[in-house]
Amino acid sequence: MADPAGAAPPPAPNLEAEDDDQTVELDLSSTVLDLSSFQLHDLDSVELPPSLTELDLTANRLSSLDPRIASLSSLKKLSLRQNLVDDAAVEPLSRWHALAGLEELVLRDNKLTKIPDASIFKQLLVFDVSFNEITALHGLSKVSNTLKELYVSKNEVPKIEEIDHFHELQILELGSNRLRVMENIQNLTNLQELWLGRNRIKSVNLCGLKCIKKISLQSNRLTSMKGFEECVALEELYLSHNGISKMEGLSSLVNLRILDMSSNKTTSVDDIENLTQLEDLWLNDNQIETLEGLSEAVAGSRDKLTTIYLENNPCANRGLEVLSDSSKIPSMDELPTQT
After folding, report:
1. Disordered: where is this region (predicted)?
2. What burial class does residue 303 get, using C-beta atoms within 10 Å of its C-beta: 0-12 exposed, 13-18 middle, 19+ buried?
C-alpha cells in the first residue's frame, strides 16, 4: 500500500556536518530544512532560519523538541517521523501558538501512547501518528475539522471514535489496530480512501458512505462481501486474507479497476460481468475448481483487463483451455497474466 505521508522529502539545503561537534551550516534564508537521517540527538548544532516553512527531522534520535521551533511562525510542515519522542516530549506543542498555521504534523514511528493535543492547529490538513503505542482515539475531537488526511495505523486502537467532525477528511488509515466494528464514519461524506487492513472486523458497514474510491479490509475476519453495494464510485477494493466463500454484491461497482480477493475461500468467480473497467483481478490462493464461465464473466472488461492471478487454486493446474477457446476475449497467451 502506498504511504501518502511518506512521500519523498523536498531537496535538502547545503548542509555540512562531519561530526557531532560541528555546527550545521545552511542558508539562513532557506524555507525548507531537511535533516532526515542525520542521527541527531538534539538540534544544538543546527541553525533554524526564522523563514522556515518546512522542517523535516525524520530518522534522527530526538527525544525532545527544540524550544526554538516554537518561534517558527511561518512553519507549515513539521515531521518528527522515526524518532524517540514520547507523550511528555510533544506536550509543549499544545502551547506553541506561533505554530497555529501548521498544516502537516507527522509524529509517525515514535513512543506515543495517546493522541497529542493538536487543538491549536486550526489549519491542519495532515496528521500522522502511525506506528506508535496509542491505545485510544481520545483527543481527536480537539483536532481541527479542516483535516483531510488522518493516519493512525499500527497502534493498539480498539474503537473508531471522535472523528464525527472531520467533514473534509479524504483519507482515513486505521490499519493494524484492534478494531472489531466499522462505526462512526457516517459523517465522513468526502472520504475517498479507507484503510482498515489487519484488524478484527467481521462484517462490512460503510454507514451509508457512497463516494469512497479505495477500501482495504485485508487480513480481517470477513466471511461475506455484502456491504459494498452502494459504493458506486469504488475503484479499488482489497479483501485478501479473509474467509470469504462467495463473490457477491459486486454488480453495482461499475467503476472498479482493482479487485483483490486473494487468500480467501472463494470457490467460483461470480458477479463481475458488469465490471467493465476492471484491470486487475487477484484470485490466487482460493478454492476455485474450474475456469468454466470465467471467459464470459470477464468479457466486458477485455479492453481493460491486464492481470488475472489464479495461482494456488485447484483450477490452476488444469490449463487455460476455456479462456483460450473463447472468441469474446483474448487468449491467456495474449493477455498479460501475473503468476
Report:
1. 1-22
2. exposed
For residues 122-139, average pLDDT: 98
pLDDT tens-digit readout, 14-53 = 344 434 444 555 555 689 999 999 999 999 999 999 999 9
Higher pLDDT, 111 or 328: 111
| Placement of cell 487454486 in the chain | 313
Name residues whose C-beta falls within 8 Å of residue 283's C-beta, 6 or more positions apart in sequence: 261, 262, 266, 269, 308, 309, 310, 313
pTM of the model: 0.87
**Domain range 24-201, CATH class:** alpha beta
Amino acid of residue 269: V
The tens digit of pLDDT for each residue in 43-56 reads 999 999 999 999 99
- Look up residue 249 and give its three cell numbers: 454484491
Rounded Cα distance, 248 and 263, in Å:
16
Higher pLDDT, 244 or 207: 244
- Scanning the structure block, which residue is given the C-alpha cell 557531532? 20
Q: Where along the chain do its domains lie?
A: 24-201, 213-339
Same fold for the pair 24-201 and 213-339: yes
Residue in this structure with the C-alpha cell 483481478, named with its chain if needed: 281
